[in-house]
Structure formats: C-alpha cells, structure tokens
Specification:
By secondary structure, this protein is an alpha/beta fold. It has two domains: about 240 residues, QueA-like (3-Layer(aba) Sandwich); about 80 residues, Thrombin, subunit H (Beta Barrel), CATH 2.40.10.240. It is about 20% helix and about 25% strand. It has seven helices and 17 strands. The strands form three sheets. It has a nine-stranded mixed sheet with strand order 2-1-17-16-14-3-12-13-15. β8 and β9 form a beta hairpin. α6 packs across α7. The protein is globular. This is S-adenosylmethionine:tRNA ribosyltransferase-isomerase.
Length: about 350
Amino acid sequence: MQRSDFHFDLPEDLIAYRPAAQRDGSRLLVVEGEAAPAHRQFPDIVDYLQAGDLLVFNDTRVIPARLYAQKHTGGRVEILIERMLDEHRAIAHLRASKSPKAGAVLSLAANEQADPGGDRVEVTGRDGALFALRFDRPVLDVLQQWGHMPLPPYIDRQDEAEDRERYQTVYASRDGAVAAPTAGLHFTEALIAQCREIGVDTAFVTLHVGAGTFQSVRVDDIREHQMHSEYIEVSDAVCRQVEAARARGGRVVAVGTTSVRSLESACRASGQLAPFQGDSDIFIYPGYRFKCVDAMITNFHLPESTLIMLVSAFMGRERILAAYREAVAQRYRFFSYGDAMLLLPSASTDNKSTDNRSEHRE
C-alpha cells in the first residue's frame, strides 16, 4: 500500500489556526456505515450515544514544552521537550545553527528575541536524534516559568495566553504530552455530564503524545515506515470497564486516535485487552483488525499521515477519503483546532478481529 493512496487536496484556508469561539462550538461530520455523511454540531454527539456505551478519554496533559535559549556564544536555540525522564532530566529536539555538544550550558529566555534569564540547562549527551538535558530545578517548574505551548507546526503563529487553556482538554490530569489529544478538545464538563446522565460510562487511559505524531511518512511503501514510540498506560480498572460495557451490550467509543492506540496496544500481546504500561509503537493501517474499539471520535488529519491511515483502517480508505472530500466541499475546519468526525462502522466493515489472534502489522 502506497503513501499516495492517502492523499487528499486541502485548501490552506481550511486549516484552523485558532479554536472555535466556544469549546463545543465545532461542527461534527458523522460517518455511519454506508449512509451519506451527516452534518451536525459537536454537542449532537449525545444523539449517537446510548446507555451502556463507554467513552474512553486520554487524560494526558500538555506541558508548555517549547523553550527558547541562548548558547554562551550568543547563538539562539529552540528546545522542544519530547519526554521528561525524571524530575530534573528530559530528552528534547533542539534547533540551532550548530548543534550544542555535551557539556554545553544553555541560558533560557522568555522568547526567541529576549535576553536570557536566570535558569540554565545543561546538554548532557545525545539519545539518537534527541538531546539529553539536565535542569537545575524541577523540569515542570522551569516549563511553567519559561515554556510555551507547543502548537503544531501547521499552526503558523506564536502561542498566545488562550492556548494555555484551549490546547488542553478539560479533563487533562497527567503531565507529559507535547501535543494535545485533539478529539477531546471539543468536550466541556457539561457535555461529559450530559453523556453520563443518559447512561454512558467514562474511562481514562493515558498516552503522552510526542512530537513524533507530526512525523511525516517518508517512504512510498507504508509498510516500511518506522513508527514513533509513545508512553501508554491502560489500567486494570479500564479493562474491567471495557469488559462491563461488553457484558451490557454497550460500545467502546474511543475519543481520539490516542485512545484507540492505547486500547489496541493493550490488546497486542494476547489479542485480548489486558493492563498495559510502557512504550508502544503500534502502527495501524488498512488490513489491521481492531480488537477493542467499536466507534471513534476524531479530528481531521493531515494528508498521507499515519493518523489518516488509522481512520482508514477503521472505516475503509475509500469511505474516509470520500468523507474528507465532503468535508472540504462543506468547508469544515481541519486539524488540531478544527472540527470533528464521529466514525460508526457498519457491522460488515472488515476491520474487526474474528478471533483472539494478534493481527497487528508493524
């Protein structure tokens, strides 16, 4: 299967550079079975949920992971934290005219033009393409003072005060992501309460989204793509909630591709859902047999990205591309701050495992 099989044309003016005026004010494209897509507003999601369903959210919290610094030579450095290793250490992407060597000390600044301030960061080595950093103070404390929200590369502007709230879900509780689980951005506390009032249960997994989520697929044959790795936790409590939903005839509705990847990673070893804690590099594309997820809420994804490959695996490539063409024609807003989709495959959709064998492909 070729990367070009997942291409679509997107006018640049459909990229959402800012969130909707209201958190739940986005549009919702409902793709259900073979029916024509339905055009709704996001709060209408409750019309498609039913008592007994289980909504699975990703509770990761986006950290202000972008830092600006200066080398002792005066050269400017941009730092994007990829992962915190412990209270004082992290690995990061560094952008500079010349990469700093181990032992280099970087002085942090409020922005890329400002003079450096008091905090300093030491480069202690390399971890592949990433740089190992050590902070004198706790990493999170430094980020809260100096950090900027790490908006995606296609949002071509500086972060603003509003982004501290809006590029974060209302239920975010576990620090560690450098990109938001964007399908969850549409949910308000009132909307979640409304779902619970109609008998929908809620569960929370954790996937700390890394900058690799924006990594391009550079190979023509997608089977040769090396997927990035991200940290995931699926608790025993979540496994029991899924089992209970199944027992009562409810559906597992994943809020976002990160929740999908979490649940499906937790099925990886045996083909059945089990508690999981650790890194996963699961790559889901057409031909994958889903073990756990029955429905999905998601945003619109970049052409030829691993995420459009994932939703194509869930609904069928032609069905997804047709829905994307409809979204473009109806001028939906795309990507992280854009509108949403609800994906409800029909019983005949060939994406479900027929037994307990693990059929993922890497």
